[in-house]
Amino acid sequence: MREMVKRPGGHRARRIVGSILLAVLMAESLLGTLSIDAHYVADEALAGRSTLFRTMIYLIRSFSVEPGIGACVTLGGFALLYFLPRLRATGLERGLAACFGVLFTFMQMIGWSYDTYGSWDALFGSRFILLRAAIIFAGRVLLSSCLVLYAFRLADRLTAASGGGAFRFSWKRFLLAAGLVVLCWLPYYILFFPGLGNPDTSMQIAWYLHYPTEWLQYSAVRGPEVYATNHHPYFTTLLYGAFAKIGLLLDGNIFYGVALYCLCQMLVMALVLTGVWFYLRRLGLPGRSCKVGLVFTALFPLCPLYAITMLKDTLFGLVCLTFSILLFEVARTRGERLKQNWFCGLLILNGLLVALTKNQGVYFVAAAAVFCLIFCRRRIRAAVSLLLPVVLFQFVWLQVLLPAWNVAPGGRQEVLGPLFQQTARYVVMYPEDVTEEEADAIRAVIDYDHLAELYVPTLSDDVKFTYNQDATEEELSAYFQAWARMLRRHPDAYLQALLHNVYGSFYLGHQTALSYTDFDNREVADYPELVVEKTPLLERVQPIAQILLAAVQRVPGVGLLFCVGFYSWVVLFLFLDVLRRKQYVQILAQLPAILSVAVLLVSPVSGSYRYAMPMIFMLPLLIGLRLLPDPPPQAPAGGEGETAAPRRPEGSRGAPEPTPGASGTDCSDEF
């Protein structure tokens, strides 16, 4: 009897002691530094001491520098850990949280190392550095995993509290809301008139008008009749060129054509982003949440800045958003929506636009097709709706229409760029280790003799554009063999090249320019009629805008919204949230965002907003979908009269049980 009385108290004491020890580890991981300066790694007073002893002294010092802060951080960590059992997390939730914590912590630590030292030496420089980094890593993984578990439970509470009641769509209210969004965006259009653009866009306009440019050399197909390549999607070349031609007809300059395009794009984007919130409201998201979302859409600067940017990535992000909505409709209605011919036609058109507006878009559509063919009940309609755009793009657009228009294919350097970066990093790190045979094999494909000067760790353009477009298959085969032999000798060089080139897309401390602030004319400077001159207002505003855009990235908390890495991790969290709730079919709606994260792993630029555009546009939709009443409403075949699903009981914990007819069905069920 005495043991039965003591046991609860003993368990509580062990829990308190364990929480204190783990809280101290968390505090150490937050207060410690990864610096490799001599003061931190080569203290003369500890010379000759063992690695473990030096590490223990380091931990004591880092904790005692600011004891007040250390005590506060430890107390916060203790509270976080002590109340963790009350969450009643399942084994699956704990496993998913740990996966997130490991990936997130590793990329933050490796990102800091590359951002500070240009290498991973802050993690793997010596045995002392490695042990210190391992301790910091363990504490931060524990902290981030706990926070993910709390975030899971917060998502459950928000979902249980949602439920917007009946909603009747009104065109008047919708157009009024979209008009207010446009009104909030209009000052950006006026200040940056006629619109914004990058060198790629001005180059595409030149291609449409058959003006020779330097970039035409970056294709295996060249000649006097070739004025354009598909390096930038030729569909967008046609679109931008058509508007530019309108400007030439109006004023002998593309100025007003650019202004007209940016105005049209801004209006379309306002309608689509506003439509997202009305769509979510129709599915049962509370009206208050939708109003907050509309205010965010109207005031978040990245929305209007890219809405008035003549850029293929803006258009691609927009069609990816509408594609994600259509895919969610397929999942939400368990495939019944595919019975409607108009919906299939819309899906075909949207899928084709995804493929036409970005070269990797066809893989997005193909992935959605594979997913539907595996799980969808109406496989024939799914195949027609999603495989037809792939077939049209691959065989009609690429193989028939573009050759007929003398449009050259994009060069191989886009696919081989990551390999070229790895080769360049190897040459920089181990120049004496490259054999003459390997040097000759590399030299036949890229400019081996200047790789050290050309190599930029976070940008592959300088190296990949030295690619020999006339390289034979034998020369490429010899290069691949040399690449493989060098990999076996020093895999660290290749891994460092990959990490250094992608860390900016996942490291929250990485900052890149938020937006363009003018229409970049560097590719068409020799053609006055294609140059978009700055207005006097823009001349005065541009320096101020650049300062403000740089400053907003440094605002604590708010700055995360202007960080590319933030969007990557939110997409991962939403994906894990689907897995823990076992609502696997909803992955279909997340596919464009998930694949956009995958693209960042091979993108030529580290942490560029252009490559994150689909995620930025889709994230409000994906967050809203995860907050819908559980289970989401079931739409009848006619698609009208949906009502909000019943609320989950208050106080429910853990992953909800799937119910028949809900979109949260098990992956073994077809939808």
Overall description:
There is one protein chain. Helix content is 65%, strand content 1%. By secondary structure, it is mainly alpha-helical. The strands form two sheets. A two-stranded parallel sheet has the order 1-3. Strands 2-4 form a two-stranded parallel ribbon. Helix 9 crosses helix 10. It is globular and about 80 Å long. The N terminus and C terminus are likely disordered.
Summarize the helices and strands and which ones pair or pack.
Blueprint: H1 2-31, H2 38-41, H3 51-64, H4 67-82, H5 91-117, H6 121-124, H7 127-161, H8 171-191, E1 196-197, H9 199-208, E2 228-229, H10 234-251, H11 255-283, H12 287-299, H13 302-307, E3 309-310, H14 312-332, H15 341-357, H16 361-375, H17 379-404, E4 407-408, H18 413-429, H19 436-443, H20 451-454, H21 461-464, H22 473-489, H23 491-502, H24 536-552, H25 564-580, H26 587-600, H27 609-626
Parallel strand pairs: 1-3, 2-4
Helix pairs in contact: 1-4, 1-7, 3-7, 5-7, 5-25, 8-11, 8-12, 9-10, 10-11, 11-12, 11-14, 11-27, 14-15, 14-26, 14-27, 15-16, 15-17, 16-17, 16-26, 18-23, 19-22, 22-23, 25-26, 25-27, 26-27
